[in-house]
Write a structure and sequence with these properties.
This protein has no helices and three strands. By secondary structure, it is mostly beta strands. A three-stranded antiparallel β-sheet has the order 1-2-3, with no helix packed on it. The radius of gyration is 19 Å and the shape is elongated. The two termini are about 20 Å apart. The mean pLDDT is about 90.
Length: about 80
């Protein structure tokens, strides 16, 4: 996998309604790229989520990561939010 960034330019997200700099934080955007594997069912897809599969190919992907972090120093808990 390859991580690139921080990406230049503003980040416009609904999740922040105030300037992060007012509370000593900064938002940075990164891109994570790599190759993802896909799988094919070999039977039925039951309700239990335990399905028999076999590898069925690969494809390139790129996803966006937005990181909110303190400008200086850090002590505490990191939170990851999947969206």
């Amino acid at each position: 996998m390859e991580l690139s960034g921080p990406v230049a330019g503003p980040i416009n997200l609904i999740s922040t309604f105030f300037p992060l700099s007012d509370v000593g934080y900064v938002a940075e955007e990164y891109f994570l790229s790599g190759t993802a594997g896909s799988y094919r069912l070999t039977g039925s897809a039951g309700d239990d989520g335990e399905w028999e599969t076999v590898p069925d190919g690969v494809a390139p992907f790129t996803t966006r990561l937005v990181v909110y972090r303190p400008v200086e120093g850090y002590r505490g808990t990191a939170v990851v939010e999947w969206g």
